[in-house]
């Protein structure tokens, strides 16, 4: 049985995490966020954790070797049996090359969804973004989210905080890293014939954007023969 790999591609703040959370439920896919995995690793507070924190708080990318290892282990976990959504990976051509090999070796078809969002919108979104320190849910204080206007998590009541790398100076560094190191990955995808679907990630509610992506996934599955537990 073929699995499915959905690659959510786009700049920081383009809504990859939000879309992944909706889509994983629709299709029974595992949500693999390298950013979340790295933040989790930081909580151990050992030397590697401190190194990672320094890199991430500067808005730079963690080494390919480190993230490749995390992803390689993660995609073979039982919850990724029907397939998985990659959120924030690959972010360099070298990561994309490794991923292509991993997918080929496992015979997993992949679809790239490119969430396109204007930079001004991104800067606005990230400056209003808050995170729950307990369950990691992200909120946007300026948007119509469940806890819009309040500063507590609607799931567990924790006081929301600003993520260190959402501070203005760091956001600019993250956008630069995206432009220099991540955007070229799109050309790599094209060069290996990976199907890529552009989505306007700025207009419409997250649920409406997700519906469009769900249609694209269904079409792709029809063509590639990829099957899995749609819910
Ligand atoms: P994110 O939550 O996806 O915005 O990621 C937060 C930070 O984690 C990034 O700014 C990078 O420092 C690091 N990171 C996440 N994914 C990757 C990746 N695929 N390659 C390198 N660094 C990453």
Helix content: 40-55%
Structural class: alpha/beta
Q: Give the percentage of residues in beta strands.
A: 5-15%
Mean pLDDT across the residues is 92
Q: How many individual β-strands?
A: 7
The largest beta-sheet arranges its strands as 2-3-1-4-7
User: What is the CATH topology classification name of the domain at 4-118 and 182-224?
Assistant: Rossmann fold
Keywords for this entry:
binds adenosine monophosphate; 231 residues; Rossmann fold; alpha/beta; two-stranded antiparallel ribbon; 7 strands
Write up what this structure looks like.
This protein is α/β, with parallel strands linked by helices. The chain has a domain at about 5-120 and about 180-225: P-loop containing nucleotide triphosphate hydrolases (Rossmann fold). About 45% of the residues lie in helices and about 15% in strands. It has nine helices and seven strands. The protein has helices spanning about 15-25, 35-40, 45-55, 65-75, 95-105, 120-125, 170-180, 185-190, 205-225, and strands at about 5-10, 30-35, 85, 110-115, 130, 140, 195-200. The strands form two sheets. The chain has a five-stranded parallel β-sheet with strand order 2-3-1-4-7, with helices on both faces. Strands 5-6 form a two-stranded antiparallel sheet. Strand 5 and strand 6 (about 140) form a beta hairpin. Helix 6 (about 120-125) crosses helix 7 (about 170-180). It is globular, with a radius of gyration of 17 Å. The two termini are about 15 Å apart. The mean pLDDT is about 90.
